[in-house]
Amino acid sequence: MRINAFQAEGVHGYLKFDITFYPDLTFLIGINGSGKTTALKLILGLTSPSFNYLNRMDYDWCRVICSSENDEQDIKISAIQDKEGNLILEGNFKGEILRSDSIQRFFSSEVQDHFDRDEISMIEQDQRERFEAMSVTKKIRGLTTPKFLGLDRRIYEGKAIDFRFKSRKYPKSLRNSSDVLQDVPAIDSSLREVQELVYDFIRQLPQQQYLISDTFKEKLFGQSFTFQGYNLEQIPSPQNISDKRESVLKAIESLGIKYLDDSINSFFDKMGNITKMHEELTPKEKERNEDRSYSAKYIDILSQWYNNSSQLKRIDDIIKYSEDYQKELIRLRAPLKRLETIVSNFLKEGKKSLHIENDGEIKGDFDKLA
Questions:
Q1: What pTM was estimated for this model as a whole?
Q2: DSSP state of 161
Q3: What pLDDT tens digit does each residue of the chain (370 aa) get?
Q4: Most buried of 59, 97, 285, 365, CB within 10 angstroms?
Q5: Where would I find the H helices in 143-281?
């Protein structure tokens, strides 16, 4: 993707930009305070996109116009700050328009005086996670965004831009001093950035998991209101009921609701007894009497079975929904698992390995790598 132009108004309350980029090389020249760095930061904020850069500066609106291949100028990414100071991110991707909801900007210094540091950090993190979950953010991240060479001679692109922001809140486990961006060896700096990427990914999982859980709950509730017709299926064997019990218990354990084990076992004990009594019936006991009626014992078994057999169908659905739910959760963490595998394979010759905990903490012995 190539940047064709950058436009903005009301930057810092007085700056206006209308920059056209040449195909080969463009120089931004101006005296100190003329807005060169500000323009670059806003371009970074739009093309990354960077929550920090788009929120830490005041502007009415800013926009980059880009070309996906030749010189079509078919991609436009804009950020708007409304009258309340909230951020709205919008993208026009070859005619497909995506627009975010309003997201509250970082607090002003005056407002921050009324909150302690932890409260501000939690609120800002919540807003950052909302920004990361937006469709327009994900769409921009899917583009081939430009790369930028920093003053430290390192190349940055995409989401990594946010990790260069000095006032970023680091997890306590990484706070070794008041300035987390102090000069450190390259390997330590890289590992810190990897850890930060993992922490950020972990913090976004609950929001995505919430959506998956909602779908799971909708399926369960919807299935509860499915009308069941008259079921004349043959009564299965006791072994069939036993196998189904094991499947349900495994599904319940994977969902973290093992407290239902007693109720499940009680239900399947009764269903198992019905199938066992049915299996023990003699052929004569299943035949009609002279008056064309069945024996009281056979009718009792059939009544109990057909009154409860519809539950087994629901249970089959629950098992399937549970399996789908678990697969989706595994899919969410798949990028972390791939990272763990790739790095561990790389470290294997040194008899080292890497493990990512459920809370996102990276564990491994890196002493000999420095």
A1: 0.47
A2: G
A3: 788 999 999 998 889 999 999 887 788 888 888 888 889 889 988 988 888 888 888 899 999 999 887 767 889 999 999 877 789 999 999 889 999 888 877 655 555 566 777 777 787 788 888 888 889 988 988 887 666 655 454 555 555 555 554 434 444 444 443 343 344 344 445 556 666 667 677 766 766 766 677 777 677 666 656 665 555 568 888 898 898 888 888 877 877 777 888 888 998 999 999 999 988 888 888 888 878 888 888 888 888 888 888 787 777 777 777 778 778 877 877 887 887 887 777 777 667 777 777 666 777 765 444 4
A4: 59
A5: 186-224, 238-254, 261-280
- Note the CATH architecture for domain 2-169: 3-Layer(aba) Sandwich (3.40)
Q: Which residues contact 252 (CB under 8 A, 6 or more apart)?
A: 258, 260, 261, 264, 322
Residues counted in the chain: 370
For the chain, give every domain's residue range. Answer: 2-169, 222-328
